[in-house]
Amino acid sequence: DPANLAEEGRKFTFDFSYWSHDGYKERHDGYLEPAGVGSNYSDQAKVFEDLGRGVLENAWKGYNCSLFAYGQTGSGKSYSMVGYGSNKGIVPVTCEQLFVGIDEKKQNPNAKDHEFQVSVSMLEIYNEQVRDLLNPKTASIKGGLKVRQHPSKGFYVEQLVTAPVSSYDDIDRKINEGTRNRTVAATNMNATSSRAHTIVAINFSQKAPNEAGQSMTKSSVINLVDLAGSERAESTGATGDRLKEGSAINQSLSTLGNVIKALADQSSGKGKVMVPFRDSVLTKLLKNALGGNSKTIMIAALSPADINYDETLSTLRFADRAKAIKTKAIVNESPTDKLIRELKEENQKLMEQLKAAQAGGVMPQPVAVEEGDDNKGKFTEEEVEEMKRSMEEQLRRNQEEMEAMKMSWEQRLQEEAAQNEEKLQAERRKREEMKVIPHFWNLNEDPSLTGMVVHFVRGGNTRVGNKKANPPADVVLIGLSIQAEHALVRNDNNVVYLKPAAADAKVLVNGKPLTP
User: What pTM was computed for the model?
Assistant: First the structure.
């Protein structure tokens, strides 16, 4: 405690402890490595070998794996998980090594009948609302995407895009696309990267015949979770929307703390303990990772500054409690035919329930109910409609799953490639145009989000303003001081002129204000 240096220090025990504050040198390619033999610095390669390698091995065995980073804003969670530049974090290296392993297996002549399938999804929880980062259209859905509960698979996000991928480059492209969509949304909401929880899920399936010649499917879900920074309002000086955001983040992290405490009590045999998974969207989606079928690793990121003593102590206590949790991971393996049969049976039940509902009969308990509904046999019309929608959605998902199982993986990849080709062409065009056409791009305090939003200034006049501009502005900006008609940009043979469109519109060039 910096306020009481005479007091004995607090002691915590963990499986691994890393120092990454100093004691490093930078290679010519930008990679940071230990400065010498006596250096305590732990580089990204060491962290991956200790943590990421185990995640990969468990995925190959058919276990669900989860890895999440917790700590205060600026302590290095995103750096550990995603990395920056040449210093790739656990997420990209794990994805890269997964495909290295797949390529090695395919070289084996005994693995001719083996099929490996990898798909990726990426979502963000911002202010207790779920957004699909691979589908930017979901950003405009009021209240975000719905979280539903399936009786056997647990909580899932409705309408979440799960994209099939065939190489590390595909995953890298998808994660970059998700990051870009996140930046656009963050810019529109005047938010920053640390204000949201991000979950990247990699679904890995291995299909191979067993000794009896029966087709078996071994599946694993790797959840890589980058939690929002925990922080104290008085140390950040947050007010207004920032304070509201902070309280929503701290509420979900507090719920996560309560869940971890309850699970730790349960693991230590403290009788019947109620685990509050339902109290926040984050804990619903992390239910399997924390208390169910998963092998889970937690990274506690700490700041070495003495001003952050309280936050550091809080993070260490949080991680110490998490260590006491015991999860029960099982190998997810079953015959492919059995999976299809179970989905068909479930669809049959859903069809019967829907027919009963449409005929005005007694509404049975739905297979997938929206979380938080208190169903006790009395339903309003809205509840009945909601249940119908819920069952129809489940029916659609089951049908898609069955079709995906029957369809060859190559067909799915071809479909995905065809859909991506248009996006790739547009991205290439944009990159080429950026070389010759004047443009604006965003600057973010998080370097990984810088340069993601681009507005071109083509020949003639380009109007800049907010959403209320009439007629609509060519470049729409959202923020407290953005006027309906904010600025006018003129491109005259690639010579660009910029001036404010109103007296109270603030426009600066190299820090110097312009006048209309």
Answer: 0.70
